[in-house]
Design a protein that fits this description.
By secondary structure, the protein is α/β, with parallel strands linked by helices. It has 2 domains: about 160 residues, 3-Layer(aba) Sandwich (Alpha/beta knot); about 70 residues, Orthogonal Bundle (Helicase, Ruva Protein, domain 3). It is built from 10 helices and 7 strands. Strands 3-2-1-6-4-7-5 form a 7-stranded parallel sheet. It is elongated. Bound molecules: S-adenosyl-L-homocysteine. The site of S-adenosyl-L-homocysteine (SAH) has 19 residues, from helix 7. S-adenosyl-L-homocysteine (SAH) binds next to helix 7.
């Protein structure tokens, strides 16, 4: 590890908290695709560094191909250690990840439960999220080096084991959401002013009267049921114009039947 990263001050007005102080540590990863996939997840979710501990093979080509060109900087700054203990020395908070429960694994948190704590930790020293090898996962001994353990919920205990890089991605995604990085909802439609809607209803009423759809006595009562449909959808000014255009055309057509095909 180079110098520990501080939890970056998001600055006034900024809504997304930094995740750059949260490093991903892969203990004994076996497949280059998972190293590349994890680098990609680190890049996608704005996490800190990728750290390897005793990787089984280093196939740079395959790793880089899976990381894609976007995550190459993550691979370039990646560091490799020969023991998990040594790799974890610089951290303030170390969180292990496991697919399995069990009494010896202690309290298991979900990513969503733990994310806020991870975001606000890491000052002055960073936070490590530790992932185990594909086949065996982290051993009980490895987990003893961790202060907390997180497990991603799955459909059933039999389906608990995720792909390593996908597990990294899910943790990163939950951290992004907790940091406020969810993209804002699409702008809500601007509903038409009441005057515009009422004018459209007047047009509709006179048109439906003209074609005999509404009874002459108390048409407002019958129109109410039609209004209910429109009121549910919060019409825009453009939609009111469209409906008025239809009414206009109906009235014209009634008076000009001979000119229609
Ligand atoms: N076969 C192993 C799982 C190894 S999967 C076992 O049964 O324990 C490789 C790594 O991906 C795990 O060590 C863990 O770091 C991560 N991982 C996989 N599934 C996970 C889950 N449901 N929750 C948290 N991490 C998980």
């Amino acid at each position: 590890m180079s110098s520990p990263k501080k939890n970056a001050d998001p600055g006034p007005g900024a809504r997304v908290l930094s995740r750059r102080h949260i490093d991903i540590v892969l203990n004994c990863p076996q497949k280059p695709e998972n190293i590349g996939g994890s680098a990609r997840a680190v890049h996608n979710m704005g996490l800190g560094s990728l750290i390897l501990v005793r990787p089984r093979t280093i196939n740079e080509e395959l790793t880089a191909a899976t990381a894609t060109v976007h995550a190459l900087p993550v691979l370039e700054s990646m560091k490799t250690f020969s023991s998990l203990r040594e790799a974890l020395l610089p951290y303030e908070l170390v969180v292990g990840t496991t697919a399995r429960g069990g009494s010896r694994r202690g309290d298991l948190y979900s990513p969503r439960q733990l994310a806020p704590e991870l975001l606000f930790a890491g000052n002055p020293r960073p936070v490590a999220l530790v992932f185990g090898p594909e086949r065996m996962g982290l051993s009980t001994e490895d987990l003893r080096l961790c202060q907390k353990t997180v497990r991603i919920p799955t459909d059933s205990p039999e389906a608990s084991s995720l792909n390593l890089a996908q597990a990294v991605l899910i943790l990163g995604y939950e951290l992004l959401l907790a940091a406020g990085g969810e993209s804002p909802p699409p702008p809500s439609v601007r509903a038409a002013a009441q005057e515009t809607v009422l004018n459209m209803y007047d047009d509709l009423e006179s048109t439906l009267l003209k074609i005999g759809f509404l009874p002459q006595d108390n048409p407002g009562h019958w129109l109410m049921n039609i209004k209910k449909i429109f009121n549910r959808s919060r019409l825009t000014a453009g939609e009111c114009d469209l409906l008025r255009g239809i009414c206009r055309q109906i009235r014209w057509a009634v008076n000009n039947m001979d000119r229609l095909d």
